[in-house]
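Reading a protein record of the kind used here takes only a little practice. Think of the row as the fold of the chain written in a discrete alphabet. With that in mind, consider the following protein and its fold in token form:
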Amino acid sequence: MLTGRRYRLDLTPGQAEFAERIGGACRSVWNTALEQRRVHHRRGAWIGYHEQARQLVEAKGEFGWLAEVPGRCLQQTLIDLDQACAKHGTWKVRWKSRVRNAPSFRFPEGGKITVERLNRRWARAKLPKLGWVRLRITRPLGGKIKNATVCRDGRHWYISFLVEDGLAPPERHANPGSRVGIDRGVVKVVTRSDGIFHHRVFARDREAAHAKKLQRDFARTARGSARRKKAAGRVADLAGRIGRRRQDFAAKTACVLATGFELVVFEALATKNMTAGVEPRPDPERPGAFLPNGAASKSGLNRSILDNGWHRIEVATIGKARYTGTHVIKVNPAYTSQRCNVCTAVDGKSRESQAVFRCTSCGHTEHADVNAAKNILTAGRAEHAQPRPGVRVGARKPRNRVGRKANRQATAAQVTAQTEPEPAGIPRL
């Protein structure tokens, strides 16, 4: 199976500067290629990866800053853009900003990457044009390298290897027949249907107050100044420390769930939609004023959901389940917190508080989150027991997306050449 290995790099000042230039070149190629696709879309034409890759070769001959960076990284940027446009649409793909987006680039040829272990703690990897770079080897690679991605997170650089470990999922789980329902909350991060809670405070009160002070210090600095860069680094260091705690909690919780249960049931929560902001409502009687819409309380709920990492726990469990044979399914979350798991009666008044559930029909009393987790498990067992439809016999194999786009590109180029000449001002790579 394919898995990831992430290590912290120890780059020299020269290597760090060159890595910044590679990331800047990839960002420029992304933005230029995206604008080129949008211009063609406005004209009713189409341009794809193959044509943009050909223009990239021509641009490398004209601009030296493009020729000095690894060409495979630039081509991989065009491939990522092509996949993003095919999945989300040209107009929904976002620009890459130097401020908001950290530099990141990928070396797609894993066979050309060499990793040598120096001692118990350190190793080195040879990357195209970057040369030998030192990395903190916290765990062995354990397989064949497919590609490598270099990115900057805060003040430090990291490298992520995509590795083929050669392992296969087990035919049967170690605990056959074991099932658990998972309810994610704000007060308790994870509540299991067997009554066990998984919780951790990621940011203590003192750290939260210190984070607000660092944000105020950052807001008082001038744009482009050296003090602003230092203040941004202090904010990023604290946020990174809290984020690593959240990631560690998600990984450990996922390991417990995947190794202990054959079936894990989550709620199908749209976290992105749940944490969206509230639209302001203008007051018709007072021009320029807005009606109260509960935006302050909603922002607090959004912050709590994001701080607890609901989606990260689900993704980590799915990734760990590949090695244990665990089935992870998601069910409809409707009325799971208002339904009694004993008599199945649904009443919003049954949940008296955040932690107390007392059924108005049968009088059953239980912790509200545990009751919701049991309802989630019941729905998951019913869905898991239903036979799933098989693949239709003789189904056509999906074609290569890049090859299909190449045919569309050639057709669009012929139509454009016959109808009108290419106007000046179209951005080219």
The chain has two domains: 2-164, 179-203+233-281+295-385. Residues 37 and 47 are 6 Å apart (CA to CA).
